[in-house]
Amino acid sequence: MDYTGCRLFRIAAPGKSVDFLFPVYYYAQKHGSAMILEVKEILQVLDRFIGHYPIYFYLVDSRNTIAWFNQYMGQNLPEMRLGQPLECFKGFSPCPEPCAECLPAEKKFTHAKVEKNLLKARVGPAGTERYIEFFNLPILQPDGQVEGVLRLGIDVTEDEKLQEALRETEKLFKAIVDTSADAVIFLDNEDRILSWNKGAEEIFGYSAGEIIGKSIQMLVPKEVLDFGELDYLHEVLSAKGMVKKFETRRLHKNGRTVYVDISCSRVYDENGNLIGTSEILKDIEDRKHLEFELLRTIHELSKLNQLNEIIHRVYDEQDILRIILIAITAGEGLRFNRSFIIWVDKKEQMLTGHLAIGPANPEEAKRIWGELHLNRGFLKDIVQAYKIDLEGADRGVNEIVQRVRVPLRRRDHILIHALHQKQAVQVKDRQILGSKFPALTFDIDDTNLFDILASDTMVIAPVYSKKEPLGVIIADNSISRREISIEDVESLKLFANQASSAIENARLYHALEERISDLQNAYRQLAENQEKLVRAEKLAAIGEMSAKIAHEIRNPLVSIGGFARLIEKKIAEPEKTRKYAEIIKDQVDNLENILNNILSAANPPKPQKRAVAINHVIEQVVEMLGTALQQRNIEFSAELQETSLPIFGDERLLHQAFLNVFKNAIEALDGRLEGAMIRVTTRPCPEYVEVQISDNGPGIETGLISKIFQAFFTTKSRGTGLGLAVVQQIVESHSGRIEVKSQPNEGTTFYIRLPFATEAAAETVEK
Fold first, then answer.
1. What is the CATH number of domain 292-510?
2. Range(s) of the chain covered by CATH 3.30.565.10
3. Can you say whether the dihedral through the CA atoms of 269, 273, 276, 282 is positive or negative?
């Protein structure tokens, strides 16, 4: 027998080993069935040694019938019979249903090459489903014709089940990746994209065909690349092997920015070699939008809080409006270009342009915004520092706003509608946004609001108190042309509400302030009246007694005074007698003045008014006191206005009042040995004549100034304390006022202000 082409195999069996020739390509000189018989003999010998091995081993002849099978196959497939036609050329027969590639029963094998296939069949007594991998080894004649096939099958069920589970897992993983809303991509070691799922396509806009093989850098914004983000991620991956929830920005195919959350990890093969990086990119655009919205809300609330702090400490309505306008246009505020306040004029029943802020043109805007940028700070710092310049930067817009005048009766006008409906209105390209508005007009006289403001897009927000509408605020972006968003409109409404609240508080504050002032005045008047009543009661009692005393002593005083004057005139010698007579006369004059003060205080005389030249009265008093001034070495100076300075009053009472003030000044200088000085000045004021009488005496203590006009109050060891009380009484009876200013050791000045006489009375004085 020729064994050329056979291969020697050694098969190990329990306790022994057997070498046998395995004919992979069996060539023999014999032909036909003789060759099959020879192979069959060899297989039968071999079957004695390995027949019970778990190997499916059988021989098919050229007629496609089973010529031989081993013991193991016979035990597990009892339906197999020698000579049985083999309907399934891949393996077993009979099959539940033929495969498409099965040969017809009458067709012989023509495959002259080794083949391998996998069969899934039920084998064994229990009919267990198993996976068997078959090798088809053709038996060839010398001319290459297939004489038969030797088939060797190995049970690979466990391996195949693992492979099937792995394939199912891979299919599941692929399905998860493909259907994931997140972008799942795989990068090689050069950061080239090797895999790209549908989630990535949805997030970034690129199809797999467009981006696979491209660098990941095409998804990274330039500024992020320049910042070195990819290098940073590589460093973290090298150090930790993964990156978790790294928030950053990437680029969409259309160029817009996409906010993503990246988690990535290094991928290694079974030998531990780095083969790339797996990345999962989650689209966090919605979350970022919410974060930005939250930040915007916090920022808006911060602005409102700052504005609230500022305007609720201000009680001047004009200042509140100024602050609101600045806050609306400041970069730290609402960032509108211009803002106008149109205010209700109750007297004229008009809605009238009141105040505005903003640049008149782009050049001015650039300059102003540049200055503000250099000096930027908190909103409260800006509104406190910036002043609306009606003659400079804000002159143009204030000239514009003055042209806005709309009668309050025009309910069809957009401004009046917003005012009375307490409703903010957004206008874009001369059209009111929203469908709930009636037909409204923008006309103002022979023009319209758009042409006056030179703006087609704006927001109108009402300002109102609980009682009444106050006005409207108009804001626009006529310079920058920045689109006005819904957020801008809502913020302006909030600012307008703040203005409404602040103005109402300011008005309530002023009303309360006026009420408090009225109450204080009433209380002061009550206290003064009570004081006057007490004083009047005292003076009434004193007056009754004083009148009796005065009546009894006036006649003797007149006699004493008269005879003293006669002595002074008639007796030339000796000098001592003259001196004594002068003393008697002076003391009698003093006593008469005291009596006059007592009588005036007890029973104030009603002034007999006529035109009086105030300078003439003062000159008479000074002349009367000339001797007293000389005796005390007091320097006296007078600066009397050259004009007559006419007043309407009682000359006798005014004489008494000025006499008392001068005597008070002379007495204040009694303790001064040298440098004593009294000065009197008269000057005209718009509605009154002012007389100033000053001395450089010891002055009056601050705590005593409020008491010096009280009756019977005195700090001197002598005197009645009625002199200044009578002065005040006389001045007030002439509708005048008396004030005093004094500092200890710096002297005292009395200011007596008396109203001018009428023109007719003044002419009488001149004549």
1. 3.30.450.40
2. 606-766
3. positive
Question: Within its chain, how far is the Cα of 533 from the centroid?
Answer: 61
Q: How far apart are CA 114 and CA 112, in angstroms?
A: 7
pLDDT single digits (tens) 408-441:
999 999 999 999 888 889 999 998 887 677 788 9
Reply yes or no: is the peptide bond before residue 684 cis, omega within 30 of 0: no
The Cα–Cα gap between 438 and 755 comes to 62
Beta bridge partner(s), residue 196: 185
Confidence of residue 673 (pLDDT cuts 50, 70, 90): confident
pLDDT confidence band for 31 (50 / 70 / 90): very low
Indicate whether 347 pLDDT > 80: yes
Which pTM value belongs to this model?
Answer: 0.44
450, with CB counted inside 10 A (0-12, 13-18, 19+), is middle
Q: In what order do the strands lie in the sheet with 128-140?
A: 66-69, 55-61, 146-155, 128-140, 115-123
Taking the C-alpha atoms of residue 343 and residue 471, their distance in angstroms, rounded to an integer, is: 4
- Which residues is 739 bridged to in the sheet? 751
Please list the residue range(s) of the chain that carry CATH number 3.30.450.20: 180-283
Could you tell me which residue, 265 or 580, shows the higher pLDDT? 265
Instruction: State what percent of residues in the chain have pLDDT above 70.
Output: 76
Among 3.40.50.1000, 3.40.50.300, 3.30.450.20, 3.90.1200.10, name the CATH number for the domain at 180-283: 3.30.450.20
What is the pLDDT at residue 368?
62
CA angle 422–426–430, rounded 5-degree value:
125
What band does 718 get if pLDDT is binned at 50, 70 and 90? Answer: low
CATH class label, 606-766: alpha beta
CA dihedral 498, 503, 504, 506 (to 10 degrees): 120
pLDDT at 123: 77
Cα separation, 8 vs 282, in Å, equals: 62
Could you tell me the two tokens for 479?
């310079």
> What one-character-per-residue DSSP string does 639-701 give?
E--SS--EEEE-HHHHHHHHHHHHHHHHHHTTT--S--EEEEEEEE-SSEEEEEEEE-SS---
Pairing of strands 183-187, 274-283: antiparallel
> Which two structure tokens, joined as six digits, stand for 245?
């929830």
Chain region(s) in the chain for CATH 3.30.450.40: 292-510
Q: CA 207 to CA 408: how far, in whole Å? A: 63
Say if CB 304 and CB 337 are below 8 A apart. Answer: no
Tell which residue, 459, 418, 409, 456, has the closest CA to residue 436.
418
pLDDT tens sequence across 132-164 = 888 888 888 877 788 888 888 888 888 888 888
Query: Per CATH, the architecture of 7-154 is what?
Result: 2-Layer Sandwich (3.30)
427 CB contacts (<8 Å, ≥6 apart)?
Answer: 414, 433, 456, 457, 458, 459, 460
* Most confident of the ranges 210-214, 269-273, 552-556: 210-214
pLDDT at 365: 65
